[in-house]
Amino acid sequence: MVLRISKKNTLMLAVVACIAVADGLLIVEEQNAPKDMVWIEPGSFVMGSDNGFPDEAPAREVSLSGFWIDQYEVTNRDFQQFVEKTGYITSAERFGDSLVFQSPAETAYSGAVTNIAPMSWWRLVADANWEQPAGQQDSIADKMDHPVVQVSYVDALNYCLSQHKQLPTEAQFEAAARGGLEGNQYSWEQQSVQHSHEPVNSPVPVNSPEPVNSPELAKSHEQMNHWQGEFPIHDEVLDGFASTAPVGSFPANPYGLYDISGNVWEWVSDWYHPQAYTMTGNHNPAGVTEGESFDPAEPGLAKRGIRGGSFLCSDNYCRGFRVSARMPADPESATNHTGFRCVRPFLSNSIADLWLAP
Ligand SMILES: [Ca+2]
Ligand SMILES: [Ca+2]
């Protein structure tokens, strides 16, 4: 039997309690909140949107049990500690290559944006992996507090399980992203994406390892790290970051979660289907089955979901930073704009036994 006594989501200071029956007596045991995690209250929220892309509809009321969620995206430092401890080898390392964004502008493309084939801005780059996200010339040495990228769904799940955690469901991620607000399009209270009107040092090479402006400026003008300007040709970098930003560089949402919109897409545990919301229940929904999974762009290949958008999401293209936005992704593929964070169901540690050894 489990009972939540203190339910305030006061970040690291939150205290929970469990009650166990022993010798006919109730024994109350307190434990500290998990480090850098936020408690999301059990309750209901309206998931999805009838005003977004078709796969976000229908909006429906969903109820969730309470859960802990990481305050930040998992960083390179976090993932390095995991690898050093376990010897884990990622999907991209096993394959020997991975997907890296390359702006058509950088490949001497001179046509109109509308003539660029969708997804043609991805290149399979040899030796691109979490330690060198853009390939052999890249390094994370000065980006240890940036979100880890070039991790597949399988890699992300293994990391979370090793921490006695899980990947969030789409419903958990969306509830967390909405921050307790109702009917919100974004993870912040203002219903628009605000931009600074003072572009700095643009254009900046995409995949630049260095922020071109200070996190302080980013905090003062922008709600998140995304793409300002016409994707995929020109990023005005008004938010100061042409690629990933250190986690926590932008304001937290009302739940105290950083980069829950933007910076990097984040893996969720649901298998993807564009009509998933008509196929699953409304209490703790966990998505369709692997066999039901369907991506119209690649029929026959079961996909997991990613959420929250990335530094490549713009107003003119995917707008994936909206709280209801969904995307399918091959669970064994990795890119340089997809990472993750983990959740921990209340007092559930037994999932550590499920860790998938590489
Ligand atoms: Ca940016
Ligand atoms: Ca994110």
Description:
This protein has 358 residues and is an alpha+beta fold. It has a single domain (38-197, 210-349), classed as Alpha-Beta Complex (paralog of FGE (formylglycine-generating enzyme)). 12% of the residues lie in helices and 18% in strands. The chain is built from 5 helices and 13 strands. The protein has helices at 76-86, 91-95, 153-162, 170-178, 215-221, and strands at residues 15-22, 25-32, 37-40, 43-47, 60-64, 67-70, 97-101, 122-126, 265-271, 304-307, 327-329, 338-339, 343-345. The strands form 5 sheets. It has a 4-stranded mixed β-sheet with strand order 11-10-9-12. Strands 3-6-13 form a 3-stranded antiparallel β-sheet, with helices on one face. The relative contact order is 0.19. Residues 1-31, 196-219 and 347-358 have low confidence and may be disordered. The chain binds calcium ion (CA) (2 copies). One calcium ion binds next to loops.
Distance between the termini: 34 Å
Distinct small-molecule ligands in the complex: calcium ion
* Highest-level CATH class: Alpha Beta
- Describe the global form: globular
H/I helix tally: 5
Determine the mean pLDDT: 82
Rounded radius of gyration (Å): 20 Å
Largest sheet: 4 strands, mixed
Strand fraction band? 15-25%
Determine the CATH topology. paralog of FGE (formylglycine-generating enzyme)
Structural class: alpha+beta
CATH hierarchy: architecture: Alpha-Beta Complex
Strand order of the largest sheet: 11-10-9-12
Number of structural units classed as domains: 1
Helical percent range? 10-25%
* Tally of DSSP β-strands: 13
Q: Which regions have little confidence, pLDDT < 50, spanning 5+ residues? A: 1-31, 196-219, 347-358
